[in-house]
């Protein structure tokens, strides 16, 4: 391993990238199905909620960058008092936007 490789490895260890950024409702969400409506759970249900909140913010603040929108979502999230690795910045709080 070269000196540059070692420096990069040390740098990457110092940068803390934690996920998730925020959490959103994803359990027992009423959704469309071929037979009408059904209750579904999982990230496939939570993702559109966060995407909709981001779209709402972009409509309200069209000059904001994607990073600014992300920070708004994070800064208004409700702390669930769980470890950062479970809740990120907290639960999406659309009313606070």
What's the total number of strands? 2
Give the strand line-up of the largest sheet: 1-2
Order of helices and strands: HEEHHH
Largest sheet: 2 strands, antiparallel
Distance, first to last CA: 48 Å
Kindly provide the radius of gyration, computed on alpha-carbon positions and rounded to a whole number of angstroms. 18 Å
Helix content: 40-55%
- Report the portion of residues in β strands: 5-15%
Structural class: mainly alpha
The oligomeric status of these chains comes to: single chain
Number of H/I helices: 4
Sum up the overall morphology in one term.
globular
Would you identify the regions where 5 or more consecutive residues have pLDDT less than 50?
none
Overall mean confidence score, pLDDT? 88
Features:
single chain, 97 residues, 4 helices, 10% strand, globular
Notes on the structure:
The chain has 97 residues and is mainly α. It has 4 helices and 2 strands, in the order H-E-E-H-H-H. The chain has a two-stranded antiparallel sheet. The protein is globular, with a radius of gyration of 18 Å. It starts with a helix and ends in a 10-residue tail after the last helix.
Topology:
Blueprint: H1 3-14, E1 29-33, E2 36-40, H2 43-60, H3 66-75, H4 84-87
Antiparallel strand pairs: 1-2
């Amino acid at each position: 391993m070269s000196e540059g490789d070692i420096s990069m490895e040390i740098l990457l260890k110092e940068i803390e990238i934690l996920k998730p950024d925020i959490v959103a409702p994803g359990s027992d969400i009423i959704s469309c199905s071929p037979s009408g409506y059904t209750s579904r759970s999982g990230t496939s249900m939570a993702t559109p909620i966060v995407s909709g909140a981001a779209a709402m913010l972009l409509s309200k603040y069209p000059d904001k960058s994607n990073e600014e929108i992300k920070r708004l979502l994070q800064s208004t999230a409700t702390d669930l008092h769980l470890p950062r690795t479970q809740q990120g910045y907290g639960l999406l709080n659309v009313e606070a936007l």
